[in-house]
Specification:
- Its EC number is 4.1.1.48.
- Keywords: Amino-acid biosynthesis, Aromatic amino acid biosynthesis, Decarboxylase, Lyase, Tryptophan biosynthesis.
- Pathway: Amino-acid biosynthesis; L-tryptophan biosynthesis; L-tryptophan from chorismate: step 4/5.
- Strands 1-4-5-6-7-8-9-10 form an eight-stranded parallel β-barrel, surrounded by seven helices. Strands 2-3 form a two-stranded antiparallel sheet.
- The protein has a single domain, classed as Aldolase class I (TIM Barrel).
- Helix 7 links the parallel strand 7 and strand 8.
- Helix 3 crosses helix 4 and helix 3 crosses helix 11.
- By secondary structure, the protein is an alpha/beta fold.
- The chain is globular and about 50 Å long.
- The longest helix is centred in the N-terminal third of the chain and has 18 residues.
- Bound molecules: indole-3-glycerol phosphate.
- The site of indole-3-glycerol phosphate has 14 residues, from strand 10 and helix 10.
């Protein structure tokens, strides 16, 4: 069965070929951003990574005509730990220009949310001002995953490694990834199930100075408390914040108290 991830990755190969033919845009942003890991590790409150998300394959159009800089300022003012910017165009209607616009507006960490399969995408992310990139374990063979991980680290970037089951968690741990995200959305069926975070948390080595981030399907304080109790340090939230008429209130309601796990 061809999954949405297969389709996205096939399109991404074409985009990378185009990128390789052109030249990388000039580096726009030279500010040093604080470390996302430091903001999350042993935080007493659940932290929020808030996403700029115009559209998605599962939900279609979410927020047409938004201005990324405005949305980003609202997130930062509300106390977001990091802003995630989708840069994939065909499926999510994001761009590297969105990322650059956000980078020139806020000084908190910025995550480039894309389907990275080639180092040139990491160069683009860095040049547009990202301080963190996403690598999706399900999208990459281990050797490729490792080489992209090392390339990003060599460029001074932090890496969020996304997993969806315990086999993938083992692969993330082989890289010695410190920031590990579990996607509650199954990319084959689009079903969201917060107990995915519980599953991963059950075998997550919290005592090893790593943080677990619960991604997708977080709508309210009840959801946030659930994943905080499983052990998540942060949530990655797109749709519910994009649709909210009161970003400050919506975001702050997710910053629930959590129990700090120390070894
Ligand atoms: O809009 P949501 O359900 O709050 O989800 C946000 C984020 O987790 C989701 O956009 C996401 C998680 N992993 C990804 C990988 C690629 C693209 C998108 C994603």
């Amino acid at each position: 069965m061809t999954t949405i991830l297969d389709k996205i990755l096939a399109a991404k190969k074409g985009q990378v070929e185009q990128m390789l033919l052109g030249s990388i845009p000039d580096q726009l942003d030279i500010i040093t951003r604080p470390s996302l890991f430091d903001a999350l590790y042993q935080s007493e409150k659940l932290q929020v990574i808030s996403e700029i998300k115009r559209a998605s394959p599962s939900k279609g159009l979410i927020a047409e005509g938004i201005i990324p800089a405005d949305q980003a300022s609202q997130y930062a003012n509300a106390g977001a730990a990091c802003i995630s910017v989708l840069t994939d165009t065909p499926f999510f209607q994001g761009t590297f220009d969105d990322l650059a616009e956000v980078a020139s507006t806020v000084s908190i960490p910025i995550l480039c949310k894309d389907f990275i399969i080639h180092p040139i995408q990491i160069d683009y992310a860095k040049h547009a001002g990202a301080s963190v990139i996403l690598l999706i374990v399900a999208a990459l063979k281990q050797e490729k995953l490792l080489s992209l991980y090392e390339y990003a680290v060599s460029k001074g970037l932090e890496v969020l490694v996304e997993v969806h089951d315990s086999v993938e968690l083992d692969r993330a741990l082989q890289l010695d990834a410190k920031l590990i995200g579990v996607n509650n959305r199954d990319l084959r069926t689009f079903q969201v199930d917060l107990s995915r975070t519980a599953e991963i948390a059950a075998s997550f080595p919290f005592e090893e100075k790593r943080v677990l981030i619960s991604e997708s399907g977080i709508w309210n304080a009840t959801d946030a408390s659930k994943v905080a109790n499983y052990g998540a340090s942060a949530v990655l939230v797109g749709e519910s914040l994009m649709r909210s008429g009161d970003v400050q209130n919506a975001l702050q309601s997710l910053q629930v108290q959590r129990e700090v796990i120390t070894s």
